[in-house]
Amino acid sequence: MKHKVEQLKWLYGAFTGACVTYFLALLSSNQPVSGSLFLFLATCLFAGLLPVFAGFTFVHAYLIEDQTPAKKVEAALGSERVKTLTRYALWAFFAAFVLLVSHFSLVAGVIMLGGSWCIREELKAFIGSVRDGT
Question: How many angstroms separate the CA atoms of 108 and 69, rounded?
Answer without folding.
Answer: 46
